[in-house]
Q: What sequence folds into this?
């Protein structure tokens, strides 16, 4: 590179145009690199490549727990590091932390293990070289990076995983973790796995076949209104929050109401307020303690609400009213099957060994099908909606067939396991529902023999008719025209056109 004017004759490491480099003369560093790559590629001497590396500072910590590095540093005669290192011999693996080591803070930047006993810290090699152990330690990731392998074969004393066990259990079908988790633990886990694969210890090149990042749960929405200098309310859409010089007013849920996708002041519905949720943090005071929720609403309500908030991958704001909503739903489920008005909890008197009717059977098997499919898609929020629909449909039925309640409780159990277990016992089962097979959908019961069709006259709903599900258009039209209510709107009218959509609607166009 071209040195500066005050060049003192020594090697110059700074940026500048290339000189004495033939076809690179005059180019800056980035352009010169690109020209070199092009030259090597066109002459067949080389090509560009992209290399990745893990940052050591993420994996090396100055603490006295975690796994020690199985590495020794060579020392010279004065006891100084030479820069040369040796790996621990295989017979001395795994490297262990010093025993009976009482660490006391010393205020120096040295790793705490520098204070370990000399018998752990130093040794002499077979060639007489004085050695010092590496005193930085691993952040316990050396174990967590490959724990999924050991889970598949935890009692094997010869190998960390047997080939047959690996073939049976791995790779992992699904890994659920947050985005921050993915760039830390999963990055190292994948690196670790690939090293083991390259060295022939594993049969699969990838540790996980599918990764789903669950969305972050934000704090409860903060509601803010704006008043100008005269004290008048101003809509948030007309305010630049960074330059606004008026008053920002913190509001509560009682001060506002929902209108479409926006929140407006209850007393001034023309004023749109700002609703914004932030990441939970102590500084904002919006952290939710799960223990408090469990104490007031129960663990099932907390569990159910977190799954009902929205799609698994979406970022979602916390809402205490949402917790109260799912708690009320679980209360309806409890009362649908249990009777706790007396001292002892008993089975609700409406639960009977009655034969369910066709609609009730269809509702159960429609719920089984939908919940099963939603769970497989990790669409837990929609699965819970299906359970709510079932409860609304059967909650007030009398009698309530016992044969419907059992499968419903099994469908509920992944979402509210404690409540489901209690209800399962009330229904007369001695063993835990954990040993029961998942309910199966009978597709034949989903087919309806009749269907209710709305009937319109000039586009306005005038009645409904029930016809066979496979009825022809002519039969549907005749049934619609014969309906007593619809017939009144057709009297003394001329039917110009009739639109029949089988299974959907009938519309008479008249004049």
A:
């Amino acid at each position: 590179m071209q040195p500066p004017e005050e060049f003192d004759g020594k090697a110059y490491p700074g940026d500048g145009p290339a000189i004495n480099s033939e076809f690179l003369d005059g180019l800056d560093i980035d352009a010169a690199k690109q020209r070199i790559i092009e030259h090597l590629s066109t002459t067949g001497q080389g090509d560009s490549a992209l290399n990745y590396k893990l940052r050591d500072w993420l994996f090396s910590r100055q603490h006295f727990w975690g796994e020690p590095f199985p590495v020794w540093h060579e020392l010279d005669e004065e006891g100084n590091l030479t820069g040369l290192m040796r790996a621990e011999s295989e017979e001395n693996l795994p490297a262990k932390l010093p025993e009976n080591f009482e660490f006391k803070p010393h205020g120096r930047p040295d790793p705490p293990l520098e204070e370990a006993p000399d018998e752990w810290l130093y040794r002499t090699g077979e060639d007489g070289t004085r050695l010092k152990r590496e005193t930085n330690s691993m952040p316990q990731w050396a174990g967590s990076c490959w724990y999924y392998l050991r889970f598949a074969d935890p009692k094997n004393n010869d190998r960390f995983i047997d080939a047959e066990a690996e073939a049976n259990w791995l790779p992992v079908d699904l890994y659920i973790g947050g985005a921050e988790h993915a760039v830390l633990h999963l990055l190292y886990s994948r690196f670790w796995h690939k090293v083991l694969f390259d060295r022939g210890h594993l049969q699969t090149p990838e540790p996980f076949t599918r990764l789903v990042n669950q969305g972050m749960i934000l704090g409860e929405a903060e509601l803010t209104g704006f008043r100008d200098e005269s004290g008048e309310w101003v809509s948030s859409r007309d305010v630049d929050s960074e330059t606004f010089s008026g008053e920002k007013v913190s509001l509560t849920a009682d001060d506002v109401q929902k209108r479409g996708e926006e929140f407006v002041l209850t007393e001034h519905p023309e004023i749109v307020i700002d609703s914004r949720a932030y990441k939970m943090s102590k500084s904002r005071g919006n952290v939710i303690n799960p223990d408090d929720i469990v104490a007031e609403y129960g663990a099932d309500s907390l569990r159910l609400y977190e799954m009902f908030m929205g799609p698994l991958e979406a970022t979602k704001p916390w809402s205490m009213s949402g917790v109260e909503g799912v708690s009320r739903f679980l209360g309806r489920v409890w009362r649908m099957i249990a009777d706790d008005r007396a001292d002892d909890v008993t089975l609700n008197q409406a639960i009977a060994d009655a034969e369910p009717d066709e609609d009730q059977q269809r509702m159960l098997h429609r719920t089984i099908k939908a919940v099963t499919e939603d769970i497989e898609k990790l669409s837990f929020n929609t699965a819970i909606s299906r359970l709510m629909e079932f409860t609304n449909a059967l909650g007030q039925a009398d009698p309530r067939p016992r044969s419907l309640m059992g499968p419903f409780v099994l469908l509920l159990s992944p979402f509210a396991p404690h409540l489901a277990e209690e209800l399962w016992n009330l229904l007369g089962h001695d063993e835990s529902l954990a040993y029961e097979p998942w309910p199966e959908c009978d597709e034949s019961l989903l087919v309806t023999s009749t269907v209710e069709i709305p009937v319109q006259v000039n586009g306005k709903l005038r009645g409904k008719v029930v016809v066979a599900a496979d009825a022809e258009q002519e039969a549907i039209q005749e049934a619609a025209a014969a309906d007593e209510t619809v017939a009144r709107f057709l009297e003394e009218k001329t039917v110009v056109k009739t639109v029949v959509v089988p299974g959907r609607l009938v519309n008479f166009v008249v004049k």
